[in-house]
């Protein structure tokens, strides 16, 4: 074969080989299934887990990720009181109106403020974070194909030290469940790094479970109401069915005895 033919062929073969190797790096198995209280047509969120999950978001994830579809006032949905909401919002200062000399100012956060990203924009976030901006978390639990099982596996899936045969990439961390096993997010959770007010031990697994529950709620906050309505409708239909059967029996009894 003349060189001008076999060079592209060799290139193609190498590319195929490389993409095969890259594919072999992808986590090919489904993440282990976890029991979630919110699963199934009648599932409900566990309110204490949601509140713990928000603590994890507030103390850990929100230092890099935003959740801009949500306002602090929306946290009434996980059972925070108006006072807790106002106090929580106040801890995140927001850009205010320019002062008399036109200089930008900051003001304390208010309940109607959104849970914005801590970075002014995605480009600034990417520059600070080694090239990739932390994605907004408003819909993460719904948009990531792996769903809550993957989120839990991912958050508990960092390996330090990484396996001996793993490539060393500066600024990347080894995670069993990241695409290509490498991710630019440093391991966010550590045992006991926060304290839960309800006394639940804050292990990595517990924090991962709680923040996953909170992320699922954020992407679908009305699930509890919907499932409660579902239950009421089912009960109503069962009563209606019982009445219909009783009525049918009554009519047929009359017809048969005539
Ligand atoms: C130090 C900053 C930082 C913190 C803290 C942080 N993240 Fe991230 N996160 C990132 C960056 C940067 C990326 C994008 C990394 C990439 O794609 O390589 C990311 C990506 C992610 C992804 C997407 C991964 C994927 O493969 O699609 C998820 C999910 C995630 N973070 C969840 C969380 C959760 C939950 C918390 C809180 C427990 C958290 N992060 C805390 C910086 C952070």
Automatic annotation (TrEMBL):
It comes from the Bacteria. Residues 48-219 form the Cytochrome c domain. SUPFAM superfamilies: Cytochrome c (SSF46626). Residues 1-24 form the signal peptide. GO terms for molecular function: electron transfer activity; heme binding; metal ion binding. It is found in: Membrane. Residues 87-118 are annotated as: Disordered. This is Cytochrome c1. The lineage of its organism: Bacteria, Pseudomonadati, Pseudomonadota, Alphaproteobacteria, Acetobacterales.
